[in-house]
Each structure stands twice: as C-alpha cells, then as structure tokens.
Amino acid sequence: VALRVPAGEGGAVIRPLTPEDVVAARSTAWAALRDLDERTGEEPMTETPLRAARSDSRIAWLQRTDPAGAWVAEVDGAVVGCALALVRDGMWFLSLLMVRPGHQHQGLGRQLLEAALRTRTDRSWILASTDPAALRRYQRAGFALHPTFTAKGVVDRSLLAAAPGVRAGSFTADAGLVADVSTAVRGASLEPDLPWFAESGHRFWVVPGRGYLLLAETRIAQLTARDEATARALLWTALAEADGEIEVDWLAADAQWAVDVTMAARLTYRWGGTICLSGQPPMPYALPSGAFG
Ligand SMILES: CC(C)(COP(=O)(O)OP(=O)(O)OC[C@H]1O[C@@H](n2cnc3c(N)ncnc32)[C@H](O)[C@@H]1OP(=O)(O)O)[C@@H](O)C(=O)NCCC(=O)NCCS
C-alpha cells in the first residue's frame, strides 16, 4: 500500500503515481533531461515518437510492478516531478528521479527520493546522471559514488574483432538463461522485466550459459556476463550491430575490459554518470541498464 506524504515546501504534494500520470511524468522527465543536457553542454537527445512510446511503457510498467516505489510531485494540479524505484529479489534500484526545470532547487527532488527510498533494501543502487544536485542527494542518502566514462562514436568496421560463441537470442527460449546469468551476476533476476525489453523493440544476443546483451538502436541497454571473455565478445557484438553511432555508458574503474574494447574501437571518451552503491556489490562484467539496473 502506497504512503501519502504531507504537502511540503512550495505547496507541492508528493503522492503515488497513477496510470493517468504516465504521459505527464514522461513529459516532465524529458524536460528535465533536455535542461540537464543544455546546462552541461551536451547535445540534447531528441524525443522521437519511438523514444516517447518507450518512456511511457517503461513508466507504466514500473507503476504496475512497483506501485509503492512510484511517486509524483504535484503543484496546482500539475505533475512537476516523479520518482520510480523497483525491487527484484531483494535488490532495490532507482529507475527515475526528475523535477521539471523551474521547480528545481525547492526540495522536491529530496522529497521524491525520500518517498522512493521507503522500499529500499540492504542491496540498493542508483545510476546517477551528471547532475550535481542528484549526486549530493545520493551521497547524503548513504550511497558510495563510483564515477564512470561514456564512450561514443561510429565504429570503423575494419577495427571490429571476433565475437566467439555469440548467437541471436530468443526472448522466450532464452528467458531461463537471462534468469540464471542475471541472478548470478547482479543478485536479482532480469527475467520478470524481459517482456518489457521485448515489447519495446530491443535486440538480443546470448552466449549460452555465460551472458547476454540487450541493444536499443544506438545504445547498450544491458550487457551481463559471468566472465571477461564473454563480456568482451558481447561488447564487440554491440559495436558491430549498432545502427551507425553507438554509445557505451557506465564504464567504471573495475570494467577495464570494456575500456580496452571501446578504446580499440576508437570511440570518443567523456565523463559519464556515477554508479551509486549501498550494499550492492560492483559488477565487473556488466554494463547496466539505466531503467532496470
Ligand atoms: C536531480 C533533481 C531530481 C533534483 O531535484 P531538485 O528538486 O532540484 O532537488 P532538491 O531541491 O531537493 O535538492 C537539491 C540538492 O542538491 C544541492 N545542489 C544543487 N546544486 C548543486 C551543485 N551544483 N552541487 C552540489 N549540490 C547541489 C542542493 O543544495 C540540495 O541539497 P540539500 O537538500 O542538501 O540542500 C533535478 O535537478 C533534476 O531533475 N535534474 C535533471 C534530471 C536528473 O539528472 N535527474 C537525476 C537522475 S539520476
């Protein structure tokens, strides 16, 4: 049962997110991300119909699976912020925290995070954007900050290396493989959320018994492997299969195998987001999903 938080600063109400809030929550999230890109000098991501539909289905999915982790901030009847957290097999993950520009720096982000943290477990983590306000809130909430790089570019096909053992995956026949590998590597099965990746048009490869890759057009959605050779083969597959430009996020200090592959592929580096961990161990052979961890 979701909890109601009394009205806070600025006359805002923090209340559970309902299915009717999905479109307003998505529009808030995109406005906050565009503003962050402008503030940090990044090229803003365009909101294509496919991306908007994928955002809507992700918010609706998490509202259904984790209603106690889904919150909005409302001012004068309008949604101006939202937070989404999920719990899988005792692992808590923050999928989204956004406040509309113009309503930021009034404490709404802190209140939304506090509401979402009510379902927190002793294995919790967050993939933070580059927004310093978010980093401050996560560190203050007890998360350890692990900075990462982001690598991006169009891969010269003559640089591609072999990807031994990789084959196309089946969202039905390989669901058990995903359950086994994700449980072993991140301590929580991705299988319950695999239908969302299938429905929202992700592409899928596996190394039987060892690992899997989910790809969204030009971005790795999730790469999870039990060992370095499998992780390297799956990353080379992503570089070979991406449509034009590819972005590889969450290159942390303990993922030197991924740094090595992306440098060999001559991708361009910049500072990326921050992996925030509280009880959840680092996953050396994984590139996580911003939406599902
Ligand atoms: C991150 C975000 C949700 C925070 O929401 P918000 O309503 O502005 O946050 P709050 O007002 O509750 O708190 C901001 C905190 O950051 C601090 N802060 C603001 N700018 C800062 C800076 N440059 N460096 C360090 N701390 C900063 C504030 O002092 C405040 O901390 P305090 O509560 O200890 O005083 C919002 O800015 C946002 O939507 N950003 C863009 C999207 C994004 O990056 N979301 C996070 C995804 S992981």
Short description:
With 293 residues, this protein is an alpha+beta fold.
Low-confidence stretches: none
Q: Helix share of residues? A: 25-40%
- Overall 3D geometry? globular
How many strand segments?
Answer: 13
N- to C-terminal distance: 24 Å
> For this entry, what is the oligomeric state of its chains?
single chain
Query: Which range does the strand content fall in?
Result: 25-35%
Rg measurement, Å: 19 Å
Note the run of SSEs as H and E: EHHEEEHEHEEHHEEEHEHEE
Q: Look at the structure and give the mean pLDDT.
A: 95
* Strand order in the sheet with the most strands: 1-2-3-4-5-12-6-11
Structural class by SSE content:
alpha+beta
Major beta sheet, specifics?
A: 8 strands, mixed
Number of helices: 8
Present as ligands are: coenzyme A
Indicate the topology.
Blueprint: E1 13-16, H1 22-39, H2 49-65, E2 70-75, E3 78-88, E4 91-99, H3 108-116, E5 123-128, H4 132-140, E6 144-154, E7 167-168, H5 175-186, H6 194-199, E8 203-207, E9 211-216, E10 219-225, H7 228-241, E11 245-252, H8 256-264, E12 268-278, E13 286-287
Parallel strand pairs: 4-5
Antiparallel strand pairs: 1-2, 2-3, 3-4, 5-12, 6-11, 6-12, 7-8, 8-9, 9-10, 10-13
Helix pairs in contact: 1-2, 7-8
The structure holds coenzyme A.
Residues 32-33, 36, 97-99, 104-110, 128-129, 131-134, 136-137, 140 line the site of coenzyme A.
Structure description:
The structure is a single chain. Helix 1 packs across helix 2 (49-65) and helix 7 packs parallel to helix 8. The chain has 293 residues and is an alpha+beta fold. It has an eight-stranded mixed sheet with strand order 1-2-3-4-5-12-6-11. A five-stranded antiparallel sheet has the order 7-8-9-10-13. The protein has helices at 22-39, 49-65, 108-116, 132-140, 175-186, 194-199, 228-241, 256-264; strands at residues 13-16, 70-75, 78-88, 91-99, 123-128, 144-154, 167-168, 203-207, 211-216, 219-225, 245-252, 268-278, 286-287. The structure holds coenzyme A. Coenzyme A (COA) binds next to helix 1, strand 4, helix 3 and helix 4.
